[in-house]
Specification:
The chain is an alpha/beta fold. The chain is built from 15 helices and nine strands. The strands form three sheets. The chain has a five-stranded parallel β-sheet with strand order 2-3-1-4-5. A two-stranded antiparallel sheet has the order 6-7. Strands 8-9 form a two-stranded parallel sheet.
């Protein structure tokens, strides 16, 4: 019996994959695999929150109201009990949460997750997708702006390089805990995935016949979508006025500002300055080469195509008229959403 643990990474189509798995629970069950809902209806967010160090405060923990050591310890105990009551040692399961790799930086945190996922006796196979790191950096920035960020795009710090972009170092820590043979690395790139689709690629990874699954389910098409350069510029200014969190609690006055911002994003993407691209490429050259050779069986060179600036523009402070034009777009989107909900 096997647990397939999809750990992300963030911004690699995880929302699309999780929607697919949740929409196909019956089809998975027919094949002998359970995609459980007690860890999260679509995204198994509780896994990452469970394993992260109790002293660290992460956004998902705030959303789940699990902040403070005592609350964290109580949350862990409840989840362990529910896990034992729900997960059968005789069953096959699929778990998916990008916070596993997005939040868990230390070997101790990864070992905590392993202790939980192996507690019912199954083998655990870890699946991770990586994307070109500069594109990942700007996509993370877009997500952080939706989450309340107010400072501009910068080159990553030494700590961020180690925890977020040094893919070889990151997955080597996971391999040290779960075993090298239990790690599957895939590339999140259209020309590398089966049919350019992470859902198809994941089916291939697990040797599933993709024709058995429903790909026509209804989803939120703007889910976790990156913002364009102008909307991101607007939202950074709004974040200073209406922050996402106040006193480590979700700010109720923020409403659905971030979601609506995604819906109205239709312009060019955010351009990463050349100095950041050069810095990241220099810092990560050896890591990408080692990843390709040791985990992908390729040559000792980066497995990723270079970052492309096509169709992207730099963020900037908006003119007054531009600011109000975006505000008007948000207002129209808000009213349209309210009317759909009250029909």
């Amino acid at each position: 019996m096997t647990i397939y643990l999809h750990i992300g990474s963030p911004k690699t189509g995880t929302t699309s994959l999780q929607q697919f798995l949740a929409a196909n629970r019956k089809q998975l069950a027919d094949l002998g695999y359970d995609y459980p809902s007690f860890l999260g209806q679509e995204n198994h967010t509780k896994l990452g929150v469970y394993a992260v160090d109790a002293e660290r405060v992460v956004a998902a923990a705030i959303d789940l109201k699990v902040v403070g050591k005592q609350k964290v310890l109580a949350f862990r105990q409840r989840l362990e009990e529910e896990y034992r009551d729900t997960i059968s040692g005789q069953g096959n399961y699929i778990f998916s949460n990008e916070h596993c790799i997005g939040y868990l930086y230390t070997k101790e945190e990864i070992e905590r997750l392993k202790t939980l996922t192996t507690s019912t006796g199954q083998d655990v196979r870890v699946i991770v997708y990586f994307r070109e790191p500069v594109g990942y950096h700007v996509s993370r920035f877009s997500t952080n702006v939706k989450g309340g960020r107010t400072n501009p795009l910068k080159k990553p710090s030494k700590k961020q390089i180690e925890n977020l972009y040094d893919y070889y170092g990151i997955i080597k820590r996971w391999a040290e805990v779960f075993g090298h043979d239990n790690i599957t690395v895939r590339l999140f790139a259209r020309d590398k995935m089966k049919d350019g689709d992470i859902r198809q690629d994941f089916c291939q990874c697990l040797n599933f016949d993709a024709s058995l699954f429903d790909f026509g389910y209804r989803v939120e098409t703007n889910a976790n979508r990156s913002m364009d350069y102008m909307v991101a510029s607007f939202l950074m200014e709004m974040n200073a006025l209406v922050p996402r969190y106040v006193d480590q609690q979700v700010n109720p006055f923020r409403g659905d500002l971030a979601d609506l911002s995604q819906k109205i994003s239709t312009r060019e993407g955010i351009l990463v300055p050349e100095k950041i691209v050069t810095f990241m490429n220099n810092q990560l050259r050896d890591s990408m080469a080692k990843l390709n050779k040791e985990f992908l069986g390729g040559e000792e060179v980066s497995p990723f195509a270079p970052y492309s600036s096509d169709g992207k523009l730099p963020m900037r402070r908006l003119k007054r008229i531009e600011f109000f034009e975006i505000f008007a777009d948000l207002w129209r989107a808000k009213i349209a959403k309210q009317k759909r909900l009250t029909r």
